[in-house]
Amino acid sequence: MKRIGILTSGGDAPGMNAAVRAVARKAMHEGLEVYGINYGYAGLVAGDIFKMDPITVGDKIQRGGTFLYSARYPEFAQVEGQLKGIEQLNKFGIEALVVIGGDGSYHGALRLTEHGYNAIGLPGTIDNDIPFTDQTIGFDTAVNTVLESIDRIRDTAASHERTFVVEVMGRGAGDIALWAGVAGGAQDIIIPERDFDVKAVAEKLRASREHGQKHAIIVLAEGVMHADEFSEKLSEYGDFHLRSTVLGHVVRGGSPTASDRVLASRLGSKAVELLLEGKGGVALGIEKNEIIAHDMLDLFNHKHHAMLDLYDLNEDLAY
Ligand code: ADP
After folding, report:
1. More exposed terminus of the chain, fewer Cβ within 10 Å: N or C?
2. Nearest CA among 188, 190, 179, 182 for reference residue 142
3. 264-290 burial, b if ≥16 CB within 10 A, otherwise e?
4. Which residues line ligand 1 (CB under 6 A)?
């Protein structure tokens, strides 16, 4: 094998650039030529492909987003789209690929492997919603960004004795809400993985106000409902001086944390090692601090599980 390609696909996440850098530098270190593919599978099909050198990935490790851009390209689910992509791979002499993205992107990688072009997936998403990895690239940064916002919101919440409902990203997963909620000392964390009862949330709020805790933060995962809707339901049970805030895409951006950069570097390097061994159709993850490869087909049959013991822990710590 002489040439590999790299692309980022699906939702962007901080640390994707660090992963691209690691793949590129490790591959060059091993004597491979590396091609960057812009705009995910859309760019692959369009032939938006360029040769990288060590400097291409210089000054990128600290940058959020993805300098290779990302795009949604549903046409890649059809064989016709895949064959067009393969035409471009052949044109550029690219024999194998690293795909950084979520499980949608992994489907594309598996299709390419089935066509004879080994592709390896790295978990790049802030949502942490991918099976077989304790954390995804971008998750730690997103949690820390939410946490910084919660700390700021708490200042104003305390000053005016308000209750804030803070809605955070995460698609169908509650991981960001859970981690940021525990770290931010939330009164309550509302996530899709756990049923909730607005009346019980209100009763807890009332009790804690009676005990002297005059402000509160409730972290709400976007997969449950909108913050305004939740606040409206809550206000039916009393006047808690409610305000709601939607953090939105702010949570996607920013410089990756050390943890995300190190994770991205480890995953990227391992991907190149496995491609050199002729492996493809696998997704990498970190489990108990070890980088592990799993068959993509196996991964598609599993569901990600949020760390629900954090939910129970928060119940014990909230006052
Ligand atoms: P994520 O990778 O974050 O889950 P998406 O689900 O949007 O994000 O997938 C990203 C891209 O991966 C899609 O725009 C498409 O190009 C490709 N993709 C998604 N599903 C498939 C599939 N079943 N087969 C081939 N390619 C797919």
Report:
1. C
2. 179
3. bbbbbbbbbebbbeeebbbbbbbeeee
4. 9-11, 40-41, 72-74, 76-77, 101-105, 107-108, 111, 125
pLDDT at 319 > cutoff 90: no
Q: Are 220 and 166 in contact, with CB atoms under 8 Å apart?
A: yes
Evaluate if pTM is beyond 0.90: yes
Question: What is each CA distance from 177 to 169, 218, 225, 288, in whole angstroms?
Answer: 8, 10, 13, 22
Question: Distance between CA atoms of 135 and 137, rounded to whole angstroms?
Answer: 7
Ligand 1 atom closest to 11 (CA): 3
Binding residues for Mg(2+): 103
Say if residues 271 and 292 touch (Cβ distance below 8 Å).
no
Distance 104 CA to ligand 1 centre (A): 3
Cβ-based burial of 159 (10 A; exposed 0-12, middle 13-18, buried ≥19): exposed
For the segment 259-268, the average pLDDT, to the nearest whole number, is 98
8 Å CB contact between 188 and 233: no
Quick: pLDDT tens for 77-89: 999 999 999 999 9
For the chain, which domains are there? 1-136+255-299 (3.40.50.450), 138-251 (3.40.50.460)
What integer is the mean pLDDT of 149-166?
97
DSSP run (H or E) holding 235? helix 227-235
Nearest-angstrom CA–CA distance, 48 and 255: 26
SS3 7: strand
| 83/114 Cα distance (integer angstroms) | 12
- Compute the distance from residue 105 Cα to the ligand 1 centre, in Å: 4
pLDDT of 142 strictly over 90: yes
